[in-house]
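Translate sequence into structure tokens.
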Amino acid sequence: MIQLAATLGAMSVGIGAFGAHGLADILESTGRTETFETAVKYQFYHGLAILGCAILSHQYPGRSDWKWAARLFLVGIIVFSGSLYVLSLTGVTWLGAITPLGGLAFLMGWGWMARGASKLNG
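Result follows.
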């Protein structure tokens, strides 16, 4: 999980920089600069969340909640950020219909984290 979090963090920085410099003209012409930036931010935030899951998983090794949360965060990154990246670069607007499913995966991941935390004190 730590390697995954580190990879996602590094990818966020690289994709963000590439978007700001190498893809600026394309994103500007499609009017999707903000959409692309949103994808990068959510990937980065949830990469950090996966790092948190890794730390919690190490601290409380007998619990699977953290692993499930990390999996849901990864699904969210793939679906939410991935669909926004493709939408931003291609203009394929029907992908916007699946983006909320990635957001739902993010919410479920946070729910799994809360579930794991609730088990610690009772």
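Note: DSSP finds five helices and no strands in the chain.
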